Amino acid sequence: MATHESTEFLAGVIEGFYGAPWSPAERSELFEWMSRWGLNTYLYCPKDDLKHRTIWREPYTLEEEAALRTTIEGCQRRGLRFIYGLGPGLDIRYGQDSELEHLRRRFQQVGALGGRDFALLFDDIPDATEAADRQRWGSFAAAQCHVANTMAQWAWEHTPDGRFLFCPTPYCGRMAERQLGGEGYLETLGRELLPAIDVFWTGPEIISQEITVPHVRELRQRLRRKPVIWDNLHANDYDGRRFYCGPYAGRPRELRGEVNGLLSNPNNEFPLNYVPLRTLAEFVHGRGPWDPRAAFESALREWQPRFETVHGPLALEDLVLLCDAYYLPHQEGPEAENLFQAIAGLLAGRLPAQKEAVQACRAQAARLRQVCARTAEIRCRPLFYALSRRVWELREELDLLDRILAGETEKGILNESCSSDFHLPGTYRGGLASRLQQLLVQHADGTFTARRDLAGPPPGPLAGPAHHTAP
């Protein structure tokens, strides 16, 4: 059994998002990227593999086994570590031995397919246990440690050099501060979880803009081990209107010495992950201060051939502009930010509405709008499908704003009302979700308040369904 902290630095990819899992062809391409770039670890735990999480007690069918074997062998052929993750936390009964037997059977099934490394994931679950479990272990964390320790010891009996990982219920700083999982949860892990079990952590937040060395050092004292960073920087499963093509950023290179690994849980749409993963690999293997923008531009030059269109290649400067519009969760890329500030300044009257300034702003918006339109001509259709709905929305917004700015250029009237055949009432960003969003205002500190300025009918009971009778 492993009794000491593992030394191999884990660097790679987590397929752990909510949404449709990647296809076998996409995983094969991913493994090629990873092997070429020096990434060494792939964690399989897609939330929408129902048997990973929702019905975790049910064994895989023969067909599912064959698909999983293909994935495991694809990793191993390229020298990559395959980690199988299981998420039983939604309904596991910690005190029942039969539950441990279900876990063993699943790990045995995956082991028979070639799996050697495992993870138990207790993220995104209710932080409550049955009364009998609380009485037996005293805390939620202690009950989870019992399960994890038991399964890790079983795994190491079969593969002494295997890795075993654990995702806590409070897996970021904010969750820990709010005592999700109970008071002293992380300290209990530090005391009771076997030292050789790696612990995942996402940073100060679920999607952390920055992860600093002091933050991780404080965490290490509580966990009594180096964490493995589960990095959601490029994850987009929480926002269907965005994706992230920006670089690995907000982490200093010194962070590598404070953790046991850096694994990225990236965009749902596999074709959009080239730059995020390429720059992660550069971050892991490079030397000297980290320059995210330089790494971004270098990765874009490599990715550019995928943007070949039926009428020729997309220019690199146009690709930079497009990806700046889908950069990182907390920031736009420089060119997109400059465009936004120019438009916002003109509309708000912060910038002088001189005809030359308006024309320059419209020209840059037209350039981005044309780049969006050209994505429809990309020969690599999976890439286009990954882009299409988001860039179409951006294209429409740019078109609408251009109609407003045109009032200054053509008539000298800024903010003159305009209309568009593509933004009709009831069709422009409509639906219940959009209407509900309009009822609240989010402030800079993240809090929400109700809007009081919306006109509408007086409150009353919701209308029931319409009843139709045959003529």
Description:
The structure is a single chain. With 471 residues, the chain is α/β, with parallel strands linked by helices. It has two domains: 10-290, Alpha-Beta Barrel (TIM Barrel), CATH 3.20.20; 306-411, Methane Monooxygenase Hydroxylase, Chain G, domain 1, CATH 1.20.58. Helices cover 43% and strands 10% of the residues. The chain has 15 helices and twelve strands. It has helices spanning 24-37, 62-77, 97-112, 131-137, 140-158, 173-177, 185-192, 213-223, 274-285, 292-303, 316-324, 334-348, 355-374, 381-411, 432-437, and strands spanning 10-15, 41-44, 81-86, 117-121, 164-167, 198-201, 228-231, 261-264, 308-309, 312-313, 440-442, 448-450. Strands 1-2-3-4-5-6-7-8 form an eight-stranded parallel barrel, surrounded by four helices. Helix 9 (274-285) packs across helix 10 and helix 11 (316-324) packs across helix 12 (334-348). The termini are far apart.
Set out the fold topology.
Layout: E1 10-15, H1 24-37, E2 41-44, H2 62-77, E3 81-86, H3 97-112, E4 117-121, H4 131-137, H5 140-158, E5 164-167, H6 173-177, H7 185-192, E6 198-201, H8 213-223, E7 228-231, E8 261-264, H9 274-285, H10 292-303, E9 308-309, E10 312-313, H11 316-324, H12 334-348, H13 355-374, H14 381-411, H15 432-437, E11 440-442, E12 448-450
Parallel strand pairs: 1-2, 1-8, 2-3, 3-4, 4-5, 5-6, 6-7, 7-8
Antiparallel strand pairs: 9-10, 11-12
Helix pairs in contact: 1-2, 3-5, 5-7, 9-10, 11-12, 11-13, 12-13, 13-14
Top keywords for this entry?
about 475 residues, alpha/beta, TIM Barrel, Methane Monooxygenase Hydroxylase, Chain G, domain 1, 8-stranded parallel beta barrel, two-stranded antiparallel sheet, 15 helices, 12 strands, about 45% helix, about 10% strand
